[in-house]
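Obj: model holo form, ligand = magnesium ion.
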Amino acid sequence: MYKQTCTNLLEQPPEKVKEWLNTFDSVITDCDGVLWVYSNVIEGAVDTMNRFTALGKNIFFCTNNSTKTRQELLDKSHSMGFAITADGMISSAHSTAAYLKSRDFQKKVYVLGAGGITGELDALGIQHTGVGPDVMTGTVAEYLATNFHLDTDIGAVVVGFDEHFSFCKMIKAASYLDKPDCLFIATNTDERFPMPGMVIPGSGSFVRAIETCSERKPFVIGKPNPSICEWLINDGTIDPARTLMIGDRCNTDILLGYNCGFQTLLVGTGIHKLNDVEAWQISNDPEEKKLIPDVFLPKLGDLLPFM
Ligand SMILES: [Mg+2]
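Output (holo structure tokens):
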């Protein structure tokens, strides 16, 4: 129904929208830009998600944000009124730790990121370096002669969102990755977070920097890579054909839906808007065609009258 047509549900007859609501039993939703923007909940999002639960649908929150642990995301969701369980939380930080665990990783991780990653590594008993500032004082030559040390136990470099990203960290990450057996993992590759009057660089910016100086490509855990939620499909928790993916960013959320065979809903409360989709619809680039969602709503709460 509506496959990759970006149909505006508000322009459909109500009975059609109700019919569409019966085509899925599981809902995976992005968080920032769909449910909330930073610490502000988006109008109608809580009631809509809780209504899905009341209707018997299985709901999951899926975020590329690697700065928080699943428990922190759960606490944030509960404080806003979302009735979600720990099992319903999918995060790039947790999935990164789970990926390393599944490979029986026994060495230590160099973390270029924040506490969300180290918290999830701790939870699975995986050793790691600390997070926070690592800055150059004096010249590069002085730094290399005095403060520069490489840890011989490092077997993986994980890059996520790091507000303390620095030249020192680039030197270390690239040096560790110079060993071919050192794993290179990116929690996600979101490019940026536009805000009124400014742009905040996303994890993808840091990942690109490390790609360049290491001359390597990372394994990407986060959306649009199916590895962030593949286990839900593999263990039969969700049926891809009867799963709806909701997002505000097409090259992560909607593309994940495309890659996993989910239905897709774009909401206009975040990154991508209808004019972005219109450009992809007339493009001849097959990669851009993958970004076109099935349906569109200005905001998630617009669904409530039909539920
Ligand atoms: Mg988002």
